[in-house]
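Sequence only, no structure available. Ideas?
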Amino acid sequence: GRLGRHFRSDVAAATLAAAPCASAGVAESWYLARGRANMKIDNYAAAIEAYESALRANPRSREASRGVGVARLRNGETDRAVADFDRHLAAFPDDADIVFEQARLLQWSRYAYRSRDAIRYLGMGLALRDDPARRRELARLLGRDRATLDEALAEYERLLRQTPGDAALREERLRLLLWDPRHRDAAVRELEARVREH
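Reply:
I predicted one. Tokens follow.
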């Protein structure tokens, strides 16, 4: 009797409470599928719209968060893509591909005021996935400022341990050693080593 009525009303309440969540999940899936389909046919404006709708259905959707930034970038909306990637990486800092893409974008001259962010993103990406070409980018960025010169030299040392015969890397490192009087002895040792080699 009464127990059955309570049980039925509890089940009904739970079903009603779950309904918006279920419909949000269906909506998110539908918009994500639309986003993917539009990316395949290079209809980036429609993909942006779809991914934004998926994010409204589920603000924590990793795919939609990533997709909207990628679609904006391919649509030529670089400034908005950079802002989207900042938001995406605040929520999903383990997305190495987007971390490296953001670091690449922030090295453009128009984002020179964000060079520290480019360095930070390169460091984040390298913590996730070692990549010698990107480590070299990081070393070069760090080497532009005397304040981060020692960090740059540490990155060059790491690279040279992997490829000790890389003449271009050695040259870049030597230029940094010569730039700062504190590293004059190391510069002399490098020059002496070259004399012995030749």
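The chain has a mean pLDDT of 88.
Hope that gets you unstuck.
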